[in-house]
Amino acid sequence: MTGQLAGRRVLVTRAAHQAGKLSDGLRALGVEPVEVPVLEIRAPENPEPLDRALRQLDTYNWLILTSANTVRVLVERVAALGISFSESQLPNIAAVGAATAVEARNAGFAIAVVPETYVAESLVACLADRVAGKKALLARAEIARDVIPDALRSAGAEVDVVNAYRNVLPESAPALLRAALVAGVDAATFTSSSSVTHLAEAARQAGIAFPFAGVPAVSMGPITSATLRELGWEAAAEANPSDLSGLIAAVRLVLC
Question: With a threshold of 0.85, does the pTM exceed it?
């Protein structure tokens, strides 16, 4: 298999600090990863709502973590604020997927809920019967779907939503993308809806037609696939399960 895929080039659009595992997995297939980070994590414009919620974390019954980036930001903010929580002061914690749960456990958090399918709708299904009359804190990216807070409020929860970080397009992305496409890519991977919309913006700034003609898109999951579809790019394959191992397997299927 490795020899069969030697010389194939696959676009990796993850943030620079997150690209390593996906790139390593692609190299294990014999594929050359072409990293064009289209996401950069920055602090929210106004960090006060997040800081205020963290200072009052012991007043919540649930803390909902929507990404590994969220976990890293919360850990950094807690340290910066000089907050220390004993285990008894922490609320129940739900993570949207395995990668988020691993990041949280590595940070010392005990995880109460991880859905089998790593999408917001599955997390809601796991929590709906547990949150009625409870108070939940949802920390997430500045621009995100409202599936989780809307559904949990409908289930009877009081939900506070705070922006933990912003996803912005790195200044280097358009030039890196132009160089990658000049050299040629055999597939493009997408791990989130933001990676799709940000790549489209990088292409616009670089004067490149989007979608890329003749380049199959490989999606992390159904929501990412839907965003690709909205922008006129039908995913050639979708990860199942919706994690990095599933994405790498989907790349292999596309390239074989």
Answer: no
